[in-house]
Amino acid sequence: MIETLNTQLPTSQPPHTVAPNSVGRVMRLVLLALAPAILLHAVFFGVGILVQVLLAVASAIAAEYVALRLRRQPVRKYLFDGSALITAVLIAMCLPSLAPWWLVVSGTAFGILVAKHLYGGLGSNVFNPAMVGYAVLLVSFPVQLTRWPSPDVAGLATIDLTLLDTLRTIFVGSLPPGTTWDAVTSPTPLDAVRSGLQGGFTLREIQASPTFGLVGGRGWEWINLAVLAGGVWLLVLKIIRWHIPVAVLAGLAMPAAIMHAIDPGSYAGAFFHLTAGASMLGAFFIATDPVSAATTERGKLIYGFGIGFIAYVIRTWGGYPDGMAFAVLLMNLAVPLIDRYTVPRIYGRET
Amino acid sequence: MTTRALTRGGLKLDTHKRRSTTHPLRAATTPEVLVLSVDQHAGSPAVPIVKPGDRVLRGQPIAEPGHGVSAWLHSPVSGIVRTIEPRPSALHRDPSVCIVIENDGANRVFEGQPQPRDDSPQALREHIARGGIVGLGGAIFPTGPKLLRAPERNAHLIVNGAECEPWISCDDMLMRERADQVISGAEIVCRALQAERCTIAVEDDMTEAAQALRAAAKQSKIVPEIVTVPSIYPAGGERQLITALTGHEVPSGKLPQDIGVVCQNVGTVAAVARWIRDGEPLISRIVTVTGSATKDPANLEVLLGTPIATLIADCGGYAAQPARLIMGGTMMGVALDHDRHVVVKGTNCIVAATHEDLEPPGPEMPCIRCGACAEVCPAFLLPQQLHRYVLAGELENLDRYGLIDCIECGCCDYVCPSQIPLVERFRAAKPELVRYLDMRGMAPLARASYEAREARLARLEAERQAQLAEKRRALASKFKNS
Amino acid sequence: MLVATLISAVFAAALASVLLRTTPREIARERLIEAVNAVLPQTQCGRCTFSGCKPYATALVDGVADINHCPPGGNATARLLADLLNRPYKPVDPQFGVTPAQPMVAWIDEEACIGCTKCIQACPVDAIVGASKFMHTVIAAQCTGCELCIPPCPVDCIHLRPTADVPRTAHSAS
């Protein structure tokens, strides 16, 4: 027991206590929430995704380190704040698992160096760095980005690639002898629908093919479900709020449902769109990146809905494998405007 | 009993209140020497009316109100005024004038207290001011002036027992043990206000207090409505509570009285009861002494001017070296640099906190615009946006985004994952914005005065010139004629 | 080719007519001065070296003064002026004075005042009342805190005080 205090006590400004929370904790939980989807991805599309994630993480950390040194920022404080890791993992998840190594490395480096640090680093980037990195790859190397392996489900994958085969494909670019890209890959559900419709087939004919499962593409629908589970977990933990994911999914599902009702033969339904491509990833993990998203409640709803809607438009009438990346970037652009016009009413003031 | 919710924002915090409510209320040791600052209320400092060497009695006025809003100050003990000098203060950056009284231990009571001039509500309000009573919930606004500025009749009196800040339990203990004082104080204030409604708000976890109040209210002439609010911080903030209870918001820049509401803390109305009913001015208050560095936390009835070290000793001393000594709660209180500071009228709680009690903020990171701050803001502001404008010094935007409406509750700081000291920065930016807005508000009037003056000066000059010309002409014609 | 030329000619004519119909330069200047004056604090303190806010506004529009010469307005006003006049923003030049930290008003120590009326003549906004040989007082609600009354006072009985201590009761302008 201490009778008297002789020393001067330290002081602080109120509040004298805070919630045990940090940027690093938020980012770590987001990464953890992505883990089931990545594992499922590996189950369906092979271990390539794990190699891609490792490559992306390594290049993200390297790029982050270089950028921090060049900007004379405290390296130790920012290098492992987790934000670069999320960028890396998201890019890796968007790329085909057998894509060449330089694709993921250059995409990640571009995202971190240009989209993040040239705009002022953590908290200052206008655009989602992962989506900038991905979009750059998509416009520059469209062929490599459409080479998705066939999902290893219901006998769709005819060729079993070993880990060595996978590594050789990624690093050297050569498939095992006797195999061609056509044998290894198959169109993603979104591609299948687009090219099938262009080829004069009806939607029912396209969806009767073995690549399609219960509601969407085989494999894809389960990965999207895993992403959804991770996203819901983040919602429960209050790391993300419901506004953006719900609005994105609504923006995607509503036009899909309407178009499907008008012409079921030519337009895929809401469930197909919700489980195809990067729908769930976009709704729960990409659009919710706080730095580049709208911040007000109403703003988040507008922002999310815009993303879903634009993604639907690009998917349906555009020429890209998926519309999520461009939808996110376009809405990133609109964030200052949205935030400005959705300022909530202040207590005791008229609107 | 009805329950009303905080409209939006706020935090569910660990209250730590149980620790200090296990013991019944008891009196703290009376110190040998009491130090009474003349500047322990909102408004201008009081002016001493005693000299060093004067004998004073318990309850005797020792300082009278200064200009504008101010309050009386009374001696808590009988004794001798030893000195009147500036001393370092817990509340202000600069030392403030203190009256130092040496206790003679005789405890002789001052008999010459004034009486109200008649039994009108107005006289009652004036008489309450003589009791030196100030808002004991923390705002320390003098109660007399507050009542004198309130509507003449039909106000809605809200008695605030929603003690929402963590650790503090003095109001809870007061209501449990002295519910009669609270009720009769509410009765007196209702009479002074000619109020038509009286609501007492308590938090939903204060069941004992609510029961005691209801029992006491049975014997009362007024029928106060006892309402519970959820124990969410800051449900007891004046504006937040008023909105929860009435559904109306206090307009920005206005006072509760502008919407016909007067809000008083339970401690304040109890002090009114002691003054009006028992003739004892505000010379003591209940203080919660708590925190893990306090051996045996409790609520004590403390004479104003008692050193904090005395209170800690009364609670068994320090159990460990405190990491912080906080006057008030952990969200809005002031961290003291030592325990020789004294209890003032606004001291509701002393938290001798260990490192385990307080989660220290980590290194400050850039804002990631997550918006967690906006979700918890009880004033519906966008703290992340305000922070940007504070850093950029954009006063126009600070005005538009409502910095003035920030109540400095600290919720935004608490939840910020980037550990940004938002409230500290907001508080620092307010004076500049206030000055800027004042200047802007003044501008049209100042401009009109300036232009009127310029026009007047020009007119006077023209008239002078005209007179001169007239004189010259007259002179010229005189010469011509001659 | 002919069509293209014709269309261009029509566009050029339309553009020219719009340009030619813009307000005469003198009226535009008057309006700009008015707009600039509207963002100035109207303290009328003269610290910008001009005799009041309107003269400073005129000098700003005519390009003979810079945007950062107004300490009472502070950086916020400098920013507004920079926007309005399309010039680069600069913080207030300390050479012209320091932006006060809180609103101030003049206050006359009425016991010391000898009633010389010098401050009344100096006040640009008629905020001091009093008569020769009689005590003067400041109307706090009208005082801009410009400090112009302080130097002429022969007995140094005028001080600036924070408005928090001397409440401005009547804000007729709001």
Q: Beta-strand level of the residues of chain B, as a percent range?
A: 15-25%
| Total DSSP helices of chain A | 17
Q: Pairing-aware structural class of the strands and helices of chain A? A: mainly alpha
Element string of chain A (H = helix, E = strand): HHHHHHHHHHHHHHHHH
Q: Mean pLDDT of chain B, nearest integer? A: 91
The largest sheet of chain B is: 6 strands, mixed
Low-confidence stretches of chain A: none
- Number of helical segments of chain B? 13
Tell me which oligomeric state these chains represent.
heterotrimer
Question: What structural class do you assign from the helix and strand content of chain B?
Answer: alpha/beta
By DSSP, the count of extended strands of chain A is 0
Structural shape of chain A:
globular
Shape of chain B: globular
Taking the alpha carbons of the first and last residues of chain A, their distance comes to 56 Å
- Number of E-state strands of chain B: 18
Strand content of the residues of chain A, in percent? under 5%
> Which residues of chain B form runs of ≥5 with pLDDT under 50?
none
Radius of gyration of chain A: 22 Å
Helix content of chain A: 55-70%
Commentary on this structure:
The complex is a heterotrimer of chains A (351), B (482) and C (174). Chain A is mainly α. Helices cover 61% and strands 0% of the residues of chain A. The termini of chain A are far apart. In chain B, helix 3 (170-177) runs parallel beside helix 5 and helix 4 crosses helix 7 (266-278). The mean pLDDT of chain B is 91. Chain C is mainly α and 174 residues long. Chain C starts with a helix and ends in a 12-residue tail after the last strand. Mean pLDDT of chain C is 84; it is low at 169-174. At the A-B interface, helix 1 of A face strand 16, strand 17, helix 12 and helix 13 of B.
